[in-house]
Amino acid sequence: MTTAIANTSPLSRPAPIADHPVVSRDQWLAERLKLLAREKELTRLGDPIARERRALPWVRMDKNYVFDTQEGPRTLAELFDGRRQLLMQHFMLAPGWEQGCKSCSYMADHTDATRMHLAARDVAFVAVSRAPLAEIERFRTRMGWQFRWVSSGGTDFNRDFAVTFTPDELASGTARYNYGGMIPGEEMPGVSAFCRNDAGEVFHTYSAYGRGVEVMMNTYRLLDLTPKGRDEDGRGMAWVRHHDRYETAPAARSCCAG
To answer: Are the C-beta atoms of 102 and 256 separated by less than 8 Å?
Structure first.
């Protein structure tokens, strides 16, 4: 796998460190304790929201989706690999694309290290895209990822989960993403959760779209701790590259190349 080096393109060039107040250690500690109180408020707020998320009613998955996998055709229930919970990344890679979306790739870069820990809590993980399996595998090999990635091509799965939209929908302005809150492109990202009961029935329990997919982006959580933060200056994820493209050459063209 290619070793990543610093990207110096205009979109990714870091902004200079601005002048900032400098105080004594005691003054800093007083300000830090004020912020700590606010951070604790945020942490405590997250607990009841997580309980509300788990308390959402479920939807039985009655449609018989069959995915193309390295092991052959598999139903949604078979993607659980014997576990009772499944997390899924809706990965933006459509048929014929040279490479996957760089922002979805940024999400996926955080996945492999979590899989053993998810498995210990009865959770399987899978990424799903519309591209044919051969195109998925070509890109997955290039990126060096080990997580399971399957094709939903030939099924209504992406459409049913509102992450793929038709040209007519886009042209007419009728396409809506993130529960109607955003106007999408042809392919969009998402994260979904499913549960399988002892009878083998599968239920859809949760999906997040838009900025909700940041749940997979631990790099953002770390950047938020730094003095410059995400340092995006209103450009969003334009700085992100595929991890083997952090170099002076421009990123290869894809659906969302910056």
So the answer is: yes
What is the overall mean pLDDT for the chain? Answer: 90
**What is the model's pLDDT at position 4?**
35
pLDDT band at 183 (very low <50, low <70, confident <90, very high): confident
> What is the rounded distance in angstroms from the CA atom of residue 249 to the CA atom of residue 186?
27
For the chain, the domain total comes to 1
32: in domain: no
**How far apart, in Å, are the Cα atoms of 227 and each of 40, 182, 207, 231, 248?**
20, 31, 32, 9, 25
What digits encode the pLDDT tens for the residues 205-235?
Answer: 999 999 999 999 999 999 999 999 999 988 8
Quick check: is 3 in a domain?
no
In terms of pTM, does the model score above 0.85? yes
Residue 28: Cβ within 10 Å count: 12
On whether residue 250 sits in a domain, the answer given is no
pLDDT at 250: 47
Cα(124)–Cα(109) distance, rounded to whole angstroms? 17
Tell me what pLDDT residue 172 has. Answer: 93
Question: Can you tell me the distance from the alpha carbon of 245 to that of 9, in angstroms, rounded to the nearest whole number?
Answer: 11
Mean pLDDT over 71-79 rounds to 97
Please report, for the domain that includes residue 158, its CATH number.
3.40.30.10
In the predicted model, is pLDDT for residue 238 greater than 70? yes
> Domain limits at 138?
61-216
Task: Please indicate, yes or no, if residue 192 is contained in any of the structural domains.
Answer: yes
Which among 228, 14, 246 has a CA at the least distance from the CA of 258? Answer: 246
Nearest-CA neighbor of 241 among 91, 90, 106?
106
Q: How far apart are CA 202 and CA 105, in angstroms?
A: 27
